[in-house]
Amino acid sequence: MHVLLALSSALLSPILVAALPTPPGIPSASTARSELSGLTVAARGSSSGYSRDEFNHWITISGSCNTRETVLQRDGTNVATSSACAATSGTWVSPYDGATWTAASDVDIDHMVPLSNAWQSGASSWSASQRQAFANDLDNPQLWAVTDNVNQSKGDRSPDEWKPPLASFYCTYASAWIKVKSVYSLTITSAEKTALQGMLDTC
User: 165-180, pLDDT tens digit by residue?
Assistant: First the structure.
């Protein structure tokens, strides 16, 4: 009986994993801890001058597909699109809360490290092209397809101020946040670092 259960679990696991979004570049917990220790701790900078328009986002990626549509196709299952690359059907599982959606309008593309947070932790000194690259980064775990109202609840808050509804996602969330901040040499606050360490302790 135990063998049968093990086989069933082994057979089901790939299906369950495949149903979840998998942005690239998520580090292991040990790598995330190492990267966290390398981040500069500093008070959050000023929000003066910040605007979402400072981060040109949802740029054209290929053909008529912009960044949002590209992530919807990457993170969804059986996604069908119109000739303009808009998702017309599909299934999306939001890793933040575990909800499943079949309408693209119920799904937001979240910036793991919010644009405002990035501005206050180093991006205010970047060039326009650097901010555009950050806002449309498909090479690191910065863009996630998630439930729209959960994304709105998060807003521009850091992990010491907001965490995903699913505690089982804390490890991945913290690892992804740390990876993005590390890649872009963004600073973290002491409260942010403490919260991230606590989330990594769930790994």
Answer: 999 999 999 999 999 9
